[in-house]
Amino acid sequence: MSKVVLIGDRAVGKTSMVHALAKKPYEKVELKNGPDEEVAQTESIGNRTLQVICDLPAKSVELSLVWIDTPGELYIDRQKKEDKTDVWQEICKELQTSRYIILLLPPHQSLFNNRNEKLTTSLNSKNRFKDWWIPFLSQNCQQAKHILICRHKADMYNPNIEDLGNQNRYGISGFSWKEYFNSTSIDFGEIKDQIELYQKQHQHQEIRRFVTTIHNRSLLELPWLYIGTRESIRPQY
Amino acid sequence: MTEIAIIGPRAAGKTTYLAALAHLSQKNIFSGLDINLVKDRNNETLINMAYNLIELKDIVGQTEPGDEPTYAFTVNIPAGKYGAKQTQIKLSFVDYAGGIFDKIARRPHEVRSYIEQLLKVEAWMVMLTDFQPQKADSEYQPILEYLWQKITSEEQKNRGRKKLRMAVVMSKCERGELWPGRLDPDEDLFKIRLPNTYKYLTQTEKISSERLRFFACSSFGVRGDRDPRPNRESFENNLPSEFSAILRNDCQWQPYGLITPLYWLSTGKVLSQPSV
Fold it and tell me: Which end of chain B has the least Cβ crowding within 10 Å, N or C?
């Protein structure tokens, strides 16, 4: 079974992403045994098997994915990390055996010129990625084959989220991963160079950028469809 | 059934080649040529891969060590067409990760089990590229030397063993600097671009033409008879397309030389049309 670990800062939406995925109506991704508890701050590592059905064009693929949800404050709060050393060690252990890492990044003020002051600044976002996430991925995620970096809560900065979802609906005529990934580069402007450099330095991994929100099903499903696509081309024994 | 090990460095295009064969089985590009995939789970995987590559414009991705799949095909060629004497060949392929090839000469102990597997099959398809010809040549020659010495020793120990055939294939020959040389790959590709490797195989070891042959192939082909530009584009705009290529236009798809090395490996005979 392939493992998927969701990582990202506190309150970025790791747990609610999966909860939203479990809700109907589905488009191409159905979570057969999604979590149905209320979303609260994750305190410890959540570890459960998700049965995910991806309706891919060639055929439907059923995946069993081990979903590891991680407490976000450990990525920010040094004191919390020290207080919860055993949890931190468990996270690192899970990361080292995970095939897929989904890293959720929050939006920032400079995206689409949306000066929403609730959001962090572009400079903070860039520094956070450079000073924390790049070293974190380098140290802890080298066994992963796929790192999916999601600019999450895209509805907070993009007023055209509905159109974006319609244009990138998987399976419609003309959809291509190449075009989609080229289009998402605009949402990662401040860290685009860092991502490219990381990819050059880690050619055994595939780094892909996604734009997600729980308020648009098409966009929400795309990282999971990508995982489904990758799983569908793994050798079967 | 001819068992073929496909080996070669990373990014040589081995898996893309197999996906192209799977895609060819769905198209009617070469009149009368009929390719069938054996219905099993791995071949379904290959069909998915071809679909992703062609329809969804997604790269094939790297084959991982430990994940070497086996695929089985039959190829039916109409009698007399393309110079074929035998009209059906049955093939099974093992697609080896490029990382294994890269270690063969320098760290053979790390890939011992793979080398042992290679010594058991009857045919090798060695796919090579040469983005940096001098560097590539200096890397490939010791690897092929190691492998050839191993197989020779194996054949001496086991006299009853069928003698290995080795097709050395210059892949990605849709590249502008390679395309004109595709018709005579010995002289116009390998001798010029990989001279040490070529010299080792043909002069040092003097491997007979019954056991060694050079080919050129292209999984993507060029855009047309009058348009020799590669029919590929880069998956990501900032990466060179040789490393992360997808098919540019399926309607113009005309791969080159996918079948000829397989036919020779299986029958010892050469098709009259190298483009097939």
Answer: N
Contact A177 B56 (CB under 8 A): yes
Domain limits for position B102: 5-267
Kindly state whether residue B275 falls inside one of the protein's structural domains.
Answer: no
Cβ contact (<8 Å) for B55 and A229? Answer: no
Could you give all domains of chain A from N- to C-terminal order, each with its CATH number?
A: 2-232 (3.40.50.300)
What CATH number does residue B39 fall under? 3.40.50.300
Helix then strand then coil, in percent of chain B rounded to 5, is 40, 20, 40
Total tally of structural domains belonging to chain B:
1
3-state secondary structure of B246: strand
Q: Is the bond preceding residue A25 a cis peptide, omega within 30 degrees? A: yes
Say what percent of chain B tops pLDDT 70.
Answer: 97
In the prediction, which pLDDT does A75 show? 65
Query: Which residue from B220, B245, B247, B248 is spatially nearest to B234, judged by alpha carbons?
Result: B245
Element (H, E) at B5: strand B2-7
Residue B53 lies in a domain: yes
The pLDDT assigned to A38 comes to 46
A145 to chain B, closest Cα gap in Å: 9
Is B215 part of any domain?
yes
Residue B51, both tokens: 């679909």
What gap in Å lies between CA B216 and CA B167, rounded to an integer?
10
Confidence class for position B205, pLDDT limits 50, 70, 90: confident
Q: What pTM does this model have?
A: 0.89
Residue B276 falls within a domain, yes or no?
Answer: no
pLDDT greater than 80 at residue A211:
yes
Is A179 an 8 Å CB contact of chain B? yes
Which among A123, A127, A153 is positioned nearest to A11, based on CA atoms?
A: A153
The ipTM of this complex is 0.82
Rounded Cα gap, residues B178 and B119, in angstroms = 31
DSSP H helical ranges for B31-167:
41-54, 98-103, 112-118, 133-157
Q: And the tokens for B27?
A: 């198209």
Mutate to test the interface with B, among A172, A178, A199 (most CBs of B within 10 A): A178
CA–CA min distance B166, chain A (Å) = 25
pLDDT bin (cut points 50, 70, 90) of residue A42 is low
- Tokens encoding A140: 């802890």
